[in-house]
Structures are given as C-alpha cells and as structure tokens.
Amino acid sequence: MRIALIQQHATHDRNDNLQRGLQALEEAASGGADLVCYAELAFEPFYPQRPAEGDPRSLAQEVPGPVTEAFSERAAELGVVVVLNLYERDGDLCFDSSPVIDADGSLLGRARMVHITDYPCFHEQGYYAPGNTGAPVFDTRIGKVGVSICYDRHYPEYMRALALAGAELVVVPQAGAVGEWPDGLYEAELRVAAFQNGYFTALCNRVGVEECLEFAGESFVCGPDGRVLACAPTGEDHILSTDIDLSEVTVSHARKLFLRDRRPELYAEWLSR
Known about the structure:
Nitrilase/N-carbamoyl-D-aminoacid amidohydrolase; seven-stranded mixed sheet; 7 helices; alpha/beta
C-alpha cells in the first residue's frame, strides 16, 4: 500500500490553495497512492498565529461543505482515501477538524483536536473548542486509520487510545514551525509512539513563510518498529510517497507484547492526579 503526504504552502487565496491541493491529489494518485493526507489547515492561512479578533467563526466552514464535497468527488474518481484538515464550524462551536473520506467518496466522519493550547504564535484557544469526537479510528478501504491532529500527538494517552481502537496507521496533520522544538524531536516523538503502540505514523506538515511563522515541512513516515521510512525536504512544497505493509502491525512488539501486558486496572488512579 502506498501513502502520500501533501506538504504545501498556503496563502490568503483559499480557492488557489484548494485547487493546488486537488491537483496534488491527482498527482499522488497517478503515482499509485492509496491514501493521501494533508497538513493542518492545509487550504487556509494558519489563523492562530495571531490572537483571535472579532468573531473567528466567520473564517470556519461546515463539514460536509464545499471543501469536503470537492475532495469526495475526486476521491471517488481516483479510488483513494483522503485525510483532510480544516477549520470547522458546527453551530456556535469551531474545531480543528480532520474529515476522513473513503475511496468511494463517502465521508466517514471527522476527528477533532482534543487538546487546545495557547502560547506565542499558537493562540488556538481563541479559535478552537476542545474536540468532542474522542479518539476515532476509521475503517477505510485500505485499513484502520486514526488521526492525531498536531498538539494531540504530545499526549501518550491519546496515542494509546488509537492503538486500543485498532489503528494500523495514525496520520498527524501538523503545523510545525522552524525552530519550534529541538532538531529531531518531531521524528523522535512519533518513532516512539509507533514503536510503543504498534502502528505506522505519518506526520504531514505545512510549509511556507507566513505572518509570524515559517513552517518547516520535513513530513515523514515511521514504521511500527520505530524506524523512519521516508522524509520530505525542509521548506518546499513536496509530495512524499512511500510504501507501507500493514501486516507489520500484527507482528510488532507492541501488538504481540506491550498491549497484551498492560495493567489498565492500575492506570485510572495514577492518571487521576
């Protein structure tokens, strides 16, 4: 199975961002991709780099809506699974949301980022409500896919919940800036998560210079043995494609040993502190 991560820049021209994203989907599919993933807020500027002003809900869009409908139509034509990320409005609440579209074009649902932070250039609490979809795993044509949106990947509890729900691949739509964390930490974090939980991880980062941030790119894929399988370049639009074998999940150390030997009867008390 081949997965493709679309590492692209975004401008204030949302239609141009969308059209480039759709073009990248076709290019990835023509290269044999079975699943295509996009970065965090892939088709719009990274709004939280500035504190929210006025009513930020005016920037958000519904799901289903024009973006998901465009990708659903194209996914069905191409026969690929698509994981998006966008600023979603649902009633009076807005979310950092990843709709998941199956290879027949059906919208399987969405994952909403659970953990919402606030620090310089990442003023997310002014834009997003905490996600209310739990830690869903989607049964797609190519396998069981979980989504960990950006900040959620820092929480081992969330990453373990995806494993317990049967995820074989966890995609991470990301907005990671140059110099935000020590060199190599993105990879280290998801290598450990892949190894400890026995699934593939695929981080798809945005790229480009915006108002306050320069996004790094450097998207990558890890196997359930913790190895980095492929990595995209720094600072440029790129489609990272790589082949993965989901049968490696069932023979991973985590699936044979770590999950088997858990002691969940002890954890509730420890984690309630």
